[in-house]
């Protein structure tokens, strides 16, 4: 594919949508055709995202009717949904129904949680309400790009930021039989992971110079990790997950610990991880402990391994808005459109965020 693909972003005023717009602006084969905002149709994109004013000086948010018209008239389009959980499924269904009637072929990557489960029952058990478009679930696959060679469905559900960091560390442990299938996970996320609407947990005076856990052993995304890890590794594992809020804006640091299935040194496990990810351009494995500043603002993830011969610990870092959300979604869209997987995503980390 040599021409530019018209691209649509849903849920346009949040942090993930802003990151999508930034990545699309630098992508050689994606061209922004429309961005939906129910709350601000007709308002300038630059008003919501001042840092993007140079690349979108005149672009305005669109209404749902304008987005429907785009999907119905564009023969092929790339659609990213950064709409909220619980709203994204029905919105995507509405657009796909319009496209089917018009004979057009949008490809969708959903960044919300709405297409991370294979069944309505699995979704409802976690989110306590029925799925917004259960008939569409079979058209979506949820996976980290590094764990699935190609998409078996026309659309993708992105696993999310914490899930991506955990899965990158955990799936090799399970699939290669390195560890027993009970994994203890401690993770720290930046404040942008809580979204743009201010709440006590993200208010700067409360979060600055502080560190605290939340939803210990009861985080809503843990069942998604279990389901995606099983699909990727073939192992039904238990994840004991304790998330923490960190005093920084961007990034996730996760440590996964488990008992080794048989004694192994850190060097031996490190080589297994390096071999597992040798064809993954955005994942590096090193003996050096990874740092968030090494990946913040980029689509790269870094892993490292420690072992005392009985227990293994895998450290995983990534940018929650990029690799864990918008960047991972663009990586999937590149595949869905048969573009180079790295297109528009090779910029290195900022380093001093």
What does this structure look like?
There is one protein chain. The protein is an alpha/beta fold. It has 2 domains: 5-142, 3-Layer(aba) Sandwich (Rossmann fold), CATH 3.40.50.720; 162-320, Dihydrodipicolinate Reductase, domain 2 (2-Layer Sandwich), CATH 3.30.360. Helix content is 30%, strand content 21%. Helix 3 packs parallel to helix 4 (88-102) and helix 6 (161-175) packs parallel to helix 8. The chain is globular and about 60 Å long. The protein starts with a strand and ends in a 17-residue tail after the last helix.
Gyration radius over CA = 20 Å
Strand order of the largest sheet: 8-9-7-10-13-12-11
How many distinct beta strands? 13
Specify the CATH architecture of the largest domain: 2-Layer Sandwich
Low-confidence stretches: none
CATH fold label of the largest domain: Dihydrodipicolinate Reductase, domain 2
C-alpha termini separation: 35 Å
Q: What's the CATH class label of the largest domain?
A: Alpha Beta
Tell the overall outline. globular
The major β-sheet equals: 7 strands, mixed
């Amino acid at each position: 594919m040599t021409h530019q693909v018209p691209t649509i972003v849903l849920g346009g005023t949040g942090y993930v949508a802003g990151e999508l717009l930034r990545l699309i602006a630098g992508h050689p084969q994606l061209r922004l055709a429309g961005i939906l905002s129910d709350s601000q149709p007709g308002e300038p994109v630059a008003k919501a995202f001042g840092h993007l004013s140079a690349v979108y000086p005149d672009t305005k948010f669109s209404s749902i009717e304008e987005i429907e018209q785009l999907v119905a008239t564009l023969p092929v389009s790339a659609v990213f949904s950064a709409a909220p959980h619980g709203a994204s499924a029905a919105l995507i269904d509405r657009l796909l129904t319009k496209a089917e009637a018009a004979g057009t072929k949008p490809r969708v990557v959903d960044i919300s949680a709405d297409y991370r489960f294979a069944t309505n029952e699995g979704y409802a058990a976690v989110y306590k309400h029925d799925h917004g478009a259960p008939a569409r679930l079979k058209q979506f696959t949820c996976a980290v790009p590094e764990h699935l060679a190609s998409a078996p469905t026309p659309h993708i559900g992105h696993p999310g930021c914490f899930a991506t960091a955990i899965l990158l560390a955990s799936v090799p442990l399970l699939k290669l039989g390195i560890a027993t299938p009970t994994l203890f996970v401690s993770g720290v996320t930046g404040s942008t992971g809580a979204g743009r609407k201010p709440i006590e947990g993200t208010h700067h005076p409360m979060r600055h110079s502080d560190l605290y856990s939340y939803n210990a052993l009861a985080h809503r995304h843990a069942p998604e990790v279990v389901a995606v890890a099983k699909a990727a590794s073939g192992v039904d594992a238990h994840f004991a997950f304790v998330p923490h809020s960190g005093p920084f804006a961007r990034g996730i640091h996760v440590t996964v610990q488990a008992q080794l299935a048989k004694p192994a040194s850190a060097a031996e496990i490190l080589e297994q991880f390096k071999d597992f990810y040798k064809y993954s351009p955005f994942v590096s494995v090193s003996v050096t402990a990874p740092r968030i500043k090494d990946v913040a603002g980029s689509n790269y993830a870094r892993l490292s391994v420690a072992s005392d011969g009985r227990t293994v610990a895998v450290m995983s870092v990534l940018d929650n808005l990029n690799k864990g959300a918008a960047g991972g979604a663009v990586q999937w869209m590149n595949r869905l459109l048969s573009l180079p997987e790295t297109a528009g995503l090779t910029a290195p980390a900022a380093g001093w965020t």
